[in-house]
Amino acid sequence: MEKDLTGGSIWKQLVSFTIPLILGNLFQLTYNAVDSIVVGQFAGDRALAAVGTADPLMNLLILGITGLCIGGSVLMSHFFGAGDREKLKCQMGAMILLGMGLSVLVFVLGLSLAEPFLKLMRAPREILGMSASYLRIIFVGMPFTCLYNIYSAALRSVGDAKTPLRFLMLAAVLNVCLDLVFVALLRLGVEGAGLATDIAEAVSALLCMVYVRRKVPLLHLKKNHFVPEKQMLIRTVQCGGITALQQCSQPFGKLLIQGAINPLGVSTIAAFNAVGKIEDFALVPGRSISNAIMTFTAQNEGAGKKKRIREGFQKGMILEAGYWILICGVLLVFGEEFLSLFSSDSLTRMEGLRYFSVMAFCYWLPGFNNGLQGFFRGVGKMQITLWGTLTQISFRVLFTFLLVPKLGITGVAFACVIGWSVMLLWEAVYYVTYAAKHLRE
């Protein structure tokens, strides 16, 4: 159902829009987390390390596609807020053309280059073959990943965050069932985990497409909507391309960080994979609040409501701060229990707890950065999010290589804190300057 965010209670709209996004992102993460849990419990730590080594490269490519969708959804929200339905449809058509072209390219290149890329990451020889097999299977499902992200982004741009969640929930349950069948029962190892993820992604994509066709006339496309104006196509490439680069820079940095972790051995690799999965879940609400700020800001930018944009951003940042207090306590109390889901090895759990002993107190940094990035995307300042992320990941990678040889996995945590701090300083200064100039009634 469409939802106009340009009027009504700001608190109610932000919270009601954020909750489905949180649930949806949690179910999305369930795909990979369940892979890791089932693989770790039924195929061993070597298989878990293989999935963990492959994850940064897989995420690099998937986030490139989702970045294109995020950039396109901002433009769609602008058109929706301005009441221009025809341009909204043309924008969606441009996203499908660009997204599917990119996903096919990723599929073709990924099949042949999976193993060479893993070698560049210094993946241990004993898990190289398993990691490459897992990646190739994931690449097969790339077009479905692209279609789901495009259609869910289109629905969210018109205020509907609940429908993509329903289909993702169904797909997540299917993924769990298939993981248990393929990995635990049939003993297919990492290949079974990859196949389960592909099938689940395909189901969620097809359900989204059928729903839009039957229930959302606003997003019905005709042939002419796949021939966008030159300026619209350029704008889509600019916004989507910048956001894709910004999304890719984070996992690219993680690729380099994984390279610093790999020489420390299988136990540390497994611990780094486990804390990464837990951290992904922990950061979901903050990112979801950011996406709510983005859509809220974009619709109101299209409607020209400057004061409402400023008020919405301030309330969104309060939500970010409140969530940090919650997640800090949860990780400090239940960190070991979460790690035990991924590995029964005491050394692996000890390494993970060392990481969380630092990071639990510092998750307010990515929370505030997420809020600022949601605002900048909403007003169309994609380049600011790109430069902020590039700054953060550059400092993070640099200090990882400086600190990890001395501090092990704890060095990664301190490197994260340094990178996020520099990023927050950069974005906060720019926000104050922008708000003083552009958000006055």
The number of helical segments is 14
Kindly state the number of beta strands: 0
- What's the shape? globular
What structural category characterises the helix and strand content?
A: mainly alpha
Mean pLDDT: 82
The main pleated sheet reads as: none
What is the strand content?
Answer: under 5%
Describe what you observe in this structure.
The protein is mostly helical. It has one domain (10-438). 86% of the residues lie in helices and 0% in strands. The chain has 14 helices and no strands. The longest helix is centred in the N-terminal third of the chain and has 38 residues, at 45-82. The chain is globular, with a radius of gyration of 21 Å.
Structural key phrases:
441 residues; mainly alpha; 14 helices; globular
Q: Any chance you could write out the topology, listing elements then pairs?
A:
Layout: H1 10-43, H2 45-82, H3 85-120, H4 125-140, H5 142-157, H6 162-185, H7 189-215, H8 230-261, H9 266-303, H10 306-340, H11 346-359, H12 364-378, H13 382-407, H14 409-438
Helix pairs in contact: 1-2, 1-6, 1-7, 1-9, 2-3, 2-4, 2-5, 2-8, 2-9, 3-4, 3-5, 3-8, 4-7, 5-7, 6-7, 8-13, 9-10, 9-11, 9-12, 10-11, 10-12, 11-14, 12-14, 13-14
